[in-house]
Amino acid sequence: MDQLYLIRKTLGDLIPRHQQVFSNNQFFSGVSIPEPLEMETLEQKYPNLSHQALSLMKGCLRMDPSERLTCAQLLLHPYFDHLREKSQSSSREQDRSSNKRTRFPRKQLPPGYLPQLTGSSIFPALDNKKYYNNLRRFNYHLPNI
What we know:
This is Cyclin-dependent kinase-like 1. By secondary structure, the protein is mainly α. 49% of the residues lie in helices and 0% in strands. The protein is built from eight helices and no strands. It is elongated and about 85 Å long.
């Protein structure tokens, strides 16, 4: 109840949908949210925050969910501009430093360098009875694919 009071004191009255949900909730039956004597806006609560920080908070804390900023909109908010600039400058520096590194061409492997499956069976390991019996002894239960 105190949280709803503090929300109301800072952000204003609940929207009709929230009021309906509150009044229909059995837990709050017969209870009403006290009327705040005076409002305390976000600007008053956080006088040292920048305009951009307050704008971001207000975008997140709108009473009506349909009016709140989306995640994509929040990520594009001017509050995060300095982070985007920092990220872009560090990625540019990484690009410059990676361009300075010497790139060696990939070494080509001669044919037959990699192990080859031999025989006509598509399950060469299962042709080996000793191998198969060891698997059974350790309760190997995965199917062959």
